[in-house]
Amino acid sequence: MEPINNKADCKEQFTPNLATNHALLQEVLGDNADIIFHGFHTGNHLSALCVYCSSLCDTERLERQLLSPMLGDDFSSKSDADTASFKSEGYNSSASNTGLHVPMSSIQNVCTIDQAIHAILNGQALLLLEEQPIGRAYSLPKSTSRAVEEPTAESTVRGPREGFTENLSVNLSLLRKRMKTPSLKLISSTQGQYTNTEIVLAYVEGIIDPALIKEVQSRLRKLKLKGVMESYYIEKGIADAQYSPFPQMISTERPDVVAANLLEGRFALIIDGTPFSLVAPVSIFSMLQSPEDYYENRYMSLFVRWLRYIFAVISVMLPSAYVAITTYHQEMIPTVLLLSISRAREEIPFPALVEAMIMEIAFEALREAGVRLPKQVGAAVSIVGALIIGQAATSAGIVSAPMVIIVALTGIASFMIPRYAAGIVSRLLRFPIMILAGTLGLVGMMLGVIVIVIHLSSLRSFGMSYLSPFAPASAQGVNKVQRCHDVEEHVN
Amino acid sequence: MLTDKGRISEVQLAILLLPTILATSILSAPSMTMHYAGHDMWLSPLWGSTIGLVVIGISLGIHRLYPNKTIIQSSLQILGWFPGKLFGLAYLFYLPHLTGLIIREYGEFIANNVLPRTPLFVVMGTMVIVCALNVRLGIEVVGRTSQIFVSIIVALLLLTFLLLIKELKPQEFLPLFEDGPLPSILGSIPPAAWFSEYIVIAFLLPYVNRKRKIGKVMIGSLLFTTITMIVTNLVCLFLIGDLTDSFAFPMLIAARYITIADFLQHIEAVIVAVWIFGIFVKISVFLYIFSTTTAEWFGLNDYKPVVAPLSFLCLAYSYWVVSGHPDIAKLLSVSGNLYTLMFLFGFPVLLYGCALMRKLLKGGGG
Amino acid sequence: MTKRIGSESKTVPAKLRWKRTLQALTLISFLVLAGCWDRIEVNDLAIILATGVDTRGDQVEMTAQIFIPRKSGGGMGGSSSGETSSSGVTMIRTAVGSNVAEAMNRLQRKVSRNVFWGHCEVIVISEQASKQGLHQYLDFFLRFTQIREHAYVFSTDKKARDILALLPPLERSSAESLREMGNLKLGTHVTVLNLAQSIEGPSRSAVLSRMLILAPTSGQSKFISDPYVKGLSLIKGDHYVKTVTEPMSVGVLMLLNQLNNIIMPIDLDGNEGAVSIRLISMRTTLTPRIANNEWSMMIKVDAKGEVVLNTTTRSITDPHKNTMVEEQWKKKLTELAENALKLSQKQLKTDFFGFSIQFRRHYPRKWKSQKENWDATFENMKVDVRVDTLITSTGKSTDPQGVPGQSVH
Fold first, then answer.
1. Can you tell me whether residue C12 is helix, strand or coil?
2. Which residues pair with C305 in a beta bridge?
3. pLDDT higher at A373 or C408
4. Which residue has the higher pLDDT, C12 or B15?
5. Where are the transmembrane segments (chain B) (predicted)?
6. Would the N or C end of chain A have less CB density within 10 A of its end CB?
7. What CA–CA distance (Å, rounded) separates B268 from B257?
8. Band of the pLDDT at A202, cuts 50, 70, 90?
9. What is the mean pLDDT of residues C125-137?
10. What mean pLDDT, rounded, does chain A reach?
11. In sequence order, which ranges of chain B are alpha helices (DSSP H)?
12. Which chain C residue lies closest to A444 (C-alpha atoms)?
């Protein structure tokens, strides 16, 4: 399809002449098998044209609710008065008028070709009447989206089981159901030159900083994309530091997470066509937070949260710490442990660094293979991985048993990070630090840590420091991050 | 006008100062103090901290008279253009010297205790690159990284002290004032040199955005450093006793001595981590001051372009200042300490004196 | 939440910021990738578990016990572990040099891997070697980076080498046996740092545990045996002077406040049989006193014990009997202490028990003025020993058991 290159062209108004209008639309939408131009005469012999996209419109409803009333006698008997008012008052009053005749709630008046095309491609049926420069778009969406299911990427034991779907209106309904307040604002815009994806900016008025909303909107306006397939297209475009490996927005498929974050003064971007919504501004601590932290006993969630912090560090540092300590600082290992490590490593031909690299890369490959393959084959991959790496490689003397334990622990640790995007970072950062540890020992490892901390300190997520509330420190903020149950605070 | 747009809070400044003072002192101060003060060395930081108090007072005083100006900028107004420029030039020569010495101290420590075969250039070079990166990102980032590392340092030090409790012999506390109080006062010279580094406040005060509680916060910072130094000295005394001054880095020996249930042992790496994180902040602070001072002296608008060359210069200085560990020891001994005290304590005192005189004369004349 | 909204100008440097981080990382990796200078794989280490110091003529003979990673069982089959451990998991290498550093250097030439001292937790010094002075050993042990300050120091009247050559049937290595014995506090509990402190301190002396070799079970190889603690080696200045064994060593340990794990039989006058008491805790405090320019020391010993054997026919729960036992015990302890003091003051004229440390602590001025004459002062010092004993428990039984017909009356 030829893109709408010339915007001026499309801003063109409809003419009173139906045939001209038809030609204008035909010119833009003509070569499409699923666009139907349906010309007919209404009950009072007005010529009319109905244009719709058969793949998006519910044609049965179209016939029943729009076409048959218009063709029927009922329509003709009232038509004179109706047409008169339609002509004279234009679209201000037309909604109420037409509402009498067509049993439908969502009707929009359309007066430019541009709007018309937009409406048709969004699944609305456009009705044009003879001698009228205004069209009406009836919303008759065909329900093609899947049912609301449990979110697969973020499951919880306790908590709502609804997850976002690919359908924007379903998603909005899920959100609105949770927040029955006029303060919840849902601002819509479109993004993507070809996809015209609808993006809804959600926030709670009165809680959010208005400057933040202005900033987001200006960034969204500046964003020029060809298309939006997934929310990351947007995230990449509007994030502060686009080259940072750290995610600067949370992506979630849980409406309860979005709602809770809105209540904390963040905004959300809900994007059509993907179940993943974006939430910002966030800090590194949001990355290590699971919705369940708020749903469980406070001591338990505090414990789990700290466990997660520790394991997040482990997932980045453990292999490098092992490499650094066994090749540079053997005196740190308890004697008995060193003896068993030395026994296990006796037959191993590789240096510890190479051994760690081999194992980590093999592990990442296994994980990737397991994720991409169909579920049934995926299980086979893990069996092969466990057998080959866990058993055969150790008994063949290619890798040492302690290294297998280290890699397994690291793997578990990286699975503990609740946000997938943050987990990816830990996998990525592991390798450079491992090299540093292999060349300068613990000193190298600490230099790596320093570089990461410098980067995190300079990183901002929509103006909020990524390390807040710890740096810059605010006692109140720390308290808030550590307290899992701030339901009382939500009330204010 | 300032060469960095970033601002930090007064608490951040206070936190920034902790590793600036403590990083190097925790390791070598106990031994050096004991050299002069003998058994009473734990008291010396207390006497030494008075210097810190005076320096903080001077910095705040100069800043009150010439608000939102660094000491280099205000010196132009206090002393006049030419003497002021000379004053700044003195610091331009002194700061790379000091920074180079700190870098070298780090390099020697790592080379002696952790990576004996790694070239010194690599050890120091990697650290300088990391610090330069930090400094380039501005005072805000320097402040934040220092916050993170200070919390790590405090946690690790506490851990070390806790694990050592079993081995400590508090009876080593006595005798007190074996040779009268004089040795402990003499021994306060090395800690005083460290406390005089509080003068960095005079360089950093204009970057503080809220200054209402600045005095209190600075005193709190001083209290913290003093207590940490006293506790470190006491731990060394209680563990190693009179042998403390025969070791180069007594705290390292102390950490090595830890053995908990045959499992947790030899955790000197913890002390090495404290040292690396601390010295990272310390080098960053001095590199930042050096860069901004240079930029101010030459009247640049932005200090960022000079960071990389100046870091390289400091690295070069770290080779020029000394040729080996005994040289460092000499520079850190009394004569070296007096040299440090002159720049970090003497000159600012003179400057403050001039400023007060000027104010008095002005007041008298007007 | 602190929010500062980044304006447009802020987003651009943010991009550059990460680029700069990348640049720095690349620079660092260039510096670093040139080599791994200090890397030593565990496979390339000869892990030393214990060090022995002997003398050969006026030269130093240094022995290292090295762990053999291959020979020690491990692996899959656990059943054969008994046999593998007795075939030995350690070996020894010995080198001779004019001083300890040279000997160590020659030792390296006899081992194909990097000698690693970081796990040497036991140092055995033969009495012969310590007769020639501990100074050079202590200096080396506290100067050479790898050696642990926390390593236990033992003494032996045999060759240190023979002790390290043992392959104990119970533990993995004789080093481990020695270390465990140090942990059990069977003798004195002296680390390298403690030894240096006590030799360099005002008392200028030290006491080490003395290790001997248990005669192997008949039919076994002479290496399959354990070291065991017997007696103490006394060191004056940095020279070995004398060995003491029980009962004298008990008195010495008592005054050092290091007596543990001991059961003492106490004979009761007038009654046939004896009562054995297990020491539960003992605290020895030294209180120095200078009155009228006369230096004296008060030694107070608090001992608590538990009855573990009663071969008399009378119950210990009887208060009279109880007091009697306590009195007898007290007498015995006082005698032990006084003998040890006599040895220290009159015979060897050495301040093993740290009297001088106490005087320095409590009378720093007077100590300073009297420091030169300390030896004479010490020799003639009046020492009071006061022992308090208390029996806190009589074990499971109250009355004596196994006395024929006892339960009838």
1. helix
2. C279, C391
3. A373
4. B15
5. 44-66, 78-94, 114-135, 147-165, 185-205, 217-241, 271-291, 303-322, 334-353
6. C
7. 9
8. very high
9. 84
10. 80
11. 10-37, 44-65, 71-79, 81-113, 120-136, 139-164, 182-186, 189-195, 200-204, 214-240, 250-257, 268-297, 304-320, 325-332, 334-341, 347-365
12. C32
Residues of B at the C interface (Cβ-Cβ below 8 Å)?
112-119, 122, 125-126, 129-130, 132-133, 136-137, 171, 174-179, 240-243, 246-247, 253, 256-257, 259, 262, 265-266
- Report residue B2's pLDDT band, with 50, 70 and 90 as the boundaries: confident
In angstroms, rounded to a whole number, what is the distance separating the alpha carbons of residues C377 and C291?
14
CA-based nearest distance B263→chain C, Å: 12
Q: Report residue C73's pLDDT band, with 50, 70 and 90 as the boundaries.
A: very low
Share of chain B above pLDDT 70, in %: 94
Tell me the average pLDDT across C362-373: 80
Q: How far apart are CA C73 and CA C85, in angstroms?
A: 7
DSSP H or E run through A205: none
Mutate to test the interface with A, among B141, B267, B272, B275 (most CBs of A within 10 A): B141
Helix (H, G, I), strand (E, B) or coil at B50: helix
Q: What is the ipTM of this complex?
A: 0.88
Q: How far C52 CA sits from the closest chain A CA (Å)?
A: 18
Tens of pLDDT along C214-231?
877 777 777 777 888 888
**B114:A446 CB<8 A:** no
Helices (H), B298-346: 304-320, 325-332, 334-341
In this predicted structure, what is the pLDDT of residue C78? 37
Name the CATH topology of C247-401.
Answer: GMP Synthetase; Chain A, domain 3 (3.30.300)
Least CB-CB distance to B175: which of C31, C196, C360?
C360
Alpha helices in A223-347 (DSSP H): 231-238, 255-263, 284-287, 298-328, 335-345
Contacts of A207 in chain C (CB under 8 A): none
Start-to-end Cα distance in chain A: 52
- Taking CB atoms and an 8 Å limit, are B147 and A472 in contact across chains? yes
pLDDT, residue A204, reads 92
Task: Quick: pLDDT tens for B17-33.
Answer: 888 888 888 887 888 88
Contact B257 C34 (CB under 8 A): no
pLDDT tens by residue, A229-254: 888 888 888 888 777 888 888 888 89
Indicate the domain borders of chain B: 10-365
B226-281 confidence digits (pLDDT tens): 998 888 888 888 888 777 777 878 888 888 888 776 677 777 778 888 889 999 99
Q: What is the pLDDT of residue A319?
A: 92
Q: Are B189 and B334 in contact (CB under 8 A)?
A: yes
**Residue that is written with structure tokens 């006049």 in the block:** B80
Domain boundaries, chain C: 41-245, 247-401
By C-alpha distance, which of B294, B292, B147, B140 is closest to B208?
B140
Q: Which residues pair with C380 in a beta bridge?
A: none
Ranges of each domain in chain A: 8-139, 168-282, 311-475
Between chain A and chain B, how many beta carbons pairs sit less than 8 Å apart?
86
Q: What is the mean pLDDT of residues A341-365?
A: 86
Kindly list the residues from chain A whose CB atom is less than 8 angstroms away from the CB atom of residue B144. Answer: 457, 465, 467, 471-472
Please report the residues numbered 326 through 385 in chain A whose beta carbons come closer than 8 angstroms to any beta carbon of chain B: 328-329, 331-332, 334-336
Query: Is the CB of A330 less than 8 angstroms away from the CB of C116?
Result: yes
Contact C32 A435 (CB under 8 A): yes
Residues 6 or more apart from B320 whose CB is under 8 A from it? Answer: B100
Whether the CB-CB separation of B176 and B37 falls below 8 Å is answered with no
The CA distance from C21 to the nearest CA of chain B, in Å, is 7
CATH of B10-365 among 1.10.540.10, 1.10.340.30, 3.40.50.720, 1.20.1740.10 = 1.20.1740.10
Which of A328, A336, A454 lies closest to B141 in CB terms?
A454
Please name which of C284, C296, C299, C300 lies closest in space to residue C366, comparing C-alpha atoms.
C296
